[in-house]
Design brief:
Layout lengths: L6 E10 L2 E11 L4 E5 L6 H7 L10 E9 L2 E2 L5 H7 E4 L10 H11 L5 H14 L3 H4 L12 H13 L5 E5 L7 H14 L4 E5 L3 H7 L2 E6 L2 E7 H6 L4 H7 L5
Parallel strand pairs: 3-8, 3-9, 6-7, 7-8
Antiparallel strand pairs: 1-2, 1-4, 4-5, 9-10
Helix pairs in contact: 3-4, 3-6, 4-6, 6-7
Length: 251
C-alpha cells in the first residue's frame, strides 16, 4: 500500500497581481525525502517554497488557485499557527532573535504553550543536538545569539525550527552566505535529519542539490519542467532544457 504523500500540490497556479509566477504545479513529496528544487533566477522556486506554508500571502497582491495538501488535508483549512508549526522554514540569511542562544530556541515552544522550565531545557538541548550545535554552544547558552558565527546562527535557526516539532523543513538558499566548512555542516545535518523529517531545499547551487537531495525538481519560467531521482536528472535528464541548465548553457 502506497502511503499518502506528506505534501501534494494539485494544479497549483501562483500570481503576483496579474502576473503568473507558477503554472499548473503538480508534485507529490513522500515522507522523509530530501527534495532539491533548482532553476535559474525568477523560475518560481522560492514562490513554490513559500506557498507551502502560505508565506506568499504576506504580499497583498498575491493569489493562487489549485490545492496544497499536508498529510491529506488542504492547508487552507489549517490555522497559520498550526501550519507554520508543522512546516518550518530556514531563510537564506540567519534570522536570529536579539536574545540569548537559549531564548532563541525556547521561543517557539513558549509560543505554543510550553512553560515548565525543565521541559524547556530538555527541548532546547535536544533541538541544539539535532542541529549539531550543542557541543559548540552548551557553555554559552546565556550569551546573545548575535555573537555566533554565520554558520552557527544558521544552525541555531534550524534548532529553533526543530524545537516546535515540525513535520517538514523548508530551506530557501540556506548556505548562500556561508563558507564551505559551514555549508558542509548544514548539509551533514540535513542528511542526519532525514530519518525524522521531510525536507525541501531550494538552491541555486546545482552541486549542492546533487550532494544532498534524493529527488530533484527543475523549474523554469514558472513551470515544473522535470522531476525525478537526482542521479537520473543530473546524468540523463529527460528534457533538453534541464540538460542545458545543469551543464551551464544558461542560468
Amino acid at each position: 500500500m502506497v502511503s499518502e504523500p506528506v505534501i501534494k500540490t494539485v494544479h497549483l497556479d501562483c500570481f503576483f497581481g496579474a502576473q503568473p509566477v507558477l503554472k499548473d504545479i503538480n508534485i507529490e513529496i513522500p515522507r522523509h525525502e530530501i527534495l532539491g528544487v533548482i532553476g535559474p533566477a525568477n523560475s518560481g522556486k522560492t514562490t513554490f517554497l513559500r506557498a507551502l506554508n502560505r508565506l506568499n500571502y504576506l504580499h497583498r497582491t498575491y493569489s493562487q488557485t489549485g490545492e496544497i495538501h499536508l498529510d491529506g488535508r488542504d492547508i487552507r483549512k489549517l490555522s497559520d499557527n498550526l501550519l507554520r508549526k508543522k512546516i518550518g522554514i530556514i531563510f537564506a540569511l540567519p534570522q536570529v532573535l536579539p536574545v540569548t542562544i537559549f531564548e532563541n530556541v525556547a521561543y517557539g515552544p513558549k509560543v505554543h504553550g510550553m512553560t515548565n522550565r525543565d521541559t524547556l531545557c530538555r527541548t532546547v538541548e535536544e533541538a541544539l543536538q539535532r542541529a549539531h550545535l550543542w557541543e559548540e554552544v552548551k557553555d554559552r547558552l546565556a550569551e546573545p545569539a548575535v555573537r555566533l558565527s554565520g554558520g552557527q546562527q544558521q544552525r541555531l535557526c534550524l534548532a529553533r525550527t526543530l524545537a516546535v516539532g515540525p513535520e517538514v523543513i523548508l530551506y530557501d538558499e540556506p548556505c548562500s552566505g556561508l563558507d564551505p566548512i559551514s555549508t558542509a555542516k548544514v548539509e551533514d545535518t540535513m542528511q542526519l535529519l532525514k530519518a525524522d523529517y521531510t525536507q525541501i531545499l531550494v538552491t541555486n547551487n546545482t552541486k549542492q542539490a546533487s550532494r544532498v537531495s534524493e529527488r530533484c525538481a527543475f523549474f523554469l519560467m514558472g513551470e515544473l519542467v522535470e522531476i525525478g531521482p537526482t542521479r537520473d536528472l543530473f546524468t540523463c535528464p529527460q528534457d533538453q532544457r534541464t540538460d542545458d541548465y545543469i551543464t551551464g548553457r544558461f542560468g
